What does this fold into?
Amino acid sequence: MTEVSSVCPAVVGGLASGARPGDALDALDTPSLILDLDAFEENLRTMQVLAERHGVALRPHAKAHRCPDIALRQIALGAQGVCCQKVTEAACFAAAGLRDIHISNEVVGAPKLALLARLASQVQISVCVDDMRGLEALSAALLAQGAHARVLVEVDIGQKRCGVQTPEAALALAQAVHRLPNVEFAGIQAYHGGIQHVRGHEQRRLASERAARRITRYLKAFARAGLDCPTVTGGGTGTALFDAASGVYTEIQAGSYAFMDNDYGQLDWGEAIRFRHSLFVLTTVMSTPTALRAVTDAGLKSLSAESGLPRVPDAPGVRCQAVYDEHTLLIAEDESARPAWGSRVRLVPGHCDPTFNLHDEVVVLRGRTVEAVWPISARGLSR
Amino acid sequence: MTEVSSVCPAVVGGLASGARPGDALDALDTPSLILDLDAFEENLRTMQVLAERHGVALRPHAKAHRCPDIALRQIALGAQGVCCQKVTEAACFAAAGLRDIHISNEVVGAPKLALLARLASQVQISVCVDDMRGLEALSAALLAQGAHARVLVEVDIGQKRCGVQTPEAALALAQAVHRLPNVEFAGIQAYHGGIQHVRGHEQRRLASERAARRITRYLKAFARAGLDCPTVTGGGTGTALFDAASGVYTEIQAGSYAFMDNDYGQLDWGEAIRFRHSLFVLTTVMSTPTALRAVTDAGLKSLSAESGLPRVPDAPGVRCQAVYDEHTLLIAEDESARPAWGSRVRLVPGHCDPTFNLHDEVVVLRGRTVEAVWPISARGLSR
It folds into this structure.
């Protein structure tokens, strides 16, 4: 059989949105991932101001967007660097000009460690460890490349995912970092993803305090052992307000704050801080088979639904009932509220991170006019 | 600002898996989407034989895989053509050599209709309608291009998504197709996605029968009006056994049968037909922080979880507890069952369609050796 697949990429290139600066919102084909620049920029400023007020660094999580153009704007506003979750993702951001990248994850396997070492010879790389074998392999890969990296011991403060379970285990790893070549001990990573999404403001504050107390146990063990622990990195959008003020974290890793998906949008944010929805999937109503039903042309391949259904921000009398592979089913309270056949509907995705990862580009709008089209260059880079 | 993003694609190209025919499974980097050719080919034959035994056409749904190399193998075995859900997806399959493509969906909006008309001037295209305005716009777009397309009226047989609600509405659309230029009435599409996933074999059989009775109401109305209805297309993997034998469908649209995700894997399949898991996400255990916990390096960006968690087919004592953006958390029954740090674990994704759409390629294995790497060329083409 001839290699027919080779025909496709050219075609596919021609199937991109074709959106250009100056285009009207109404002219965009759907589904399109769109970013409201005014809301986005306000969100960036809000979090940066919060971090600076408390004297902590902001290191936004680039896994939230996988878009170098967004990361560069976060850096320009004062962010310390970015977090990436994967080495290939980090390589993409390094190529785009980011100079200080923290891989907020354990890296296991020879091809990944070799790429990490190559990156570390070009930009400042830090990375997590929670296992002696992983640390030894990291050190060996860096030594082979003649590169150096900063190492953070990941500690489990209640997330029950990765990370060492006791201060003694953390200390053993930190001491090993000091012994091994080409690695430098930089501190600990303490991230609790679960508490980011606790709905109540006061409950979230208490959860953040409990997490901070767990971190303090680790810091005391380091102090008793006479080990310096310059960096405590962690926190997220949901608890940033409390984490920044805790006196425990030196660096906040929030990512979703720039976009505010529907899951985060349902939190009680209290009075002190507020983020706006900036990220939407623009859709077209492709079927109105009954008086109350409207079906749009974006489904699971355009927005992520594992953290809950999308919201219809511009139509209060309309709720999303289901998301299928290529359809979203909307139900109106009454006939007059139902979006019209052929009309455009914006959806707030349930979860921003995997939604960005479904798109090759985000169309950036100032008001109702396209200002830019930013490639989501690290889309699909999960190795 | 310089266009830094333009640096990335070159880098990203270098970040592909790099898998080559002849490579060993054990040499693949992770996460990788992998296909077991023996199981896949057996699944293709099983469904083709079922269709032929009952004298119905098989038109596999390409939205399940978005991979032209897979579609070409389905055609080679005797499939009539393919279904696509989106026009851009159809364009990719047309470029790859598919000559008979059914767009099993309504198409709304000028750019989409213009592309559809261009495609219809090159290959045989059929498409669904459920609205008179949609039909008129389709006819006008085809006329402008000098192209012709076959039209199927979509009828709602209980899915409660798109499709007309009554035989009278279906008849009115069919008669309009006969009046309008450049469109040819080909029949009806009757798809009920919900009943595909009914777990019990007998319950699924009864649901398929109810759907077939609803279709019969439409067919009787067409007969009474003296309208020929040559095609009844629909059905899916879960009900194919019953749909093929129903005497109502002329064409079956199954897609997942080639792969068998974990959702379909949990159905009671009875004795008459059986499909095997052929699609897996290959992962590495990147953290074993406790005696019972193993964390792998594939998350929501490598496998879809909105239809349920993945399964660990090779480790009976291990279950998946959670899928995060870039991690899957596995819990072992006891310490001896826990996958080792650094070991490889295959996961059966919960839902195959959106999982394929997360990957740029699928690595195709004969036993434990790479036989080919197939591009998922229509990945991301949802317009």
Summary: Chain A touches chain B through 88 residues (CB under 8 Å).
